[in-house]
Every structure is written in structure tokens, then in C-alpha cells.
Specification:
The chain is mostly helical and 80 residues long. It has one domain (3-76). It has three helices and no strands. The chain has helices at residues 3-23, 31-56, 63-76. The two termini are 34 Å apart.
Length: 80
């Protein structure tokens, strides 16, 4: 886990806590609608967090691919 991913997770926890803090207490008139809306908001935060978390790591070349590219460049004489 890198620094970006840790920041993303902390931010998601803070946003989720703020959503619950704002939506509670749930009173009788409209209980079902309010609970449903709270879970919809939390689901959206969770989905966005998962999406951003996965793509925050970025694409990294493996050591074998880098070595193969360097070997190919040596064979063709294109390495500077």
C-alpha cells in the first residue's frame, strides 16, 4: 500500500462517518426512506473508494519486462 492509497482509505472513512453523523438520529416519519438513502450514500462512497483505490497504484512494469526491453535494445543497438 502506498501513501495515496492510505490517504484514500482515511478520506473514505471520514466521509462515511460524516454521512452517518449527518443522517442520525433517524426518527419515525420516513424511517425506511432515510435509512435507504443513508445506505445509498454509503454505497456510493464505498464504490468510489474501491475504484480510486485500485487505480491509485498505477501501472508498474515488472522487473522481467524491463530486463527484456533492455536486452532487446542492446540487440538492436538502440540503447543510448
Amino acid at each position: 500500500m502506498n501513501g495515496r492509497q492510505i490517504i484514500i482509505l482515511i478520506s473514505a472513512i471520514i466521509v462515511s462517518a460524516l454521512i452517518v453523523w449527518h443522517d442520525l438520529p433517524i426518527e419515525f416519519p420516513g424511517i425506511i426512506v432515510r435509512v435507504f438513502m443513508m445506505f445509498v450514500k454509503l454505497s456510493i462512497v464505498l464504490a468510489l473508494t474501491i475504484f480510486v483505490y485500485i487505480f491509485a497504484d498505477g501501472k508498474k512494469k515488472s522487473a522481467m519486462k524491463e530486463q527484456a526491453m533492455i536486452s532487446a535494445q542492446h540487440m538492436h543497438g538502440t540503447l543510448c
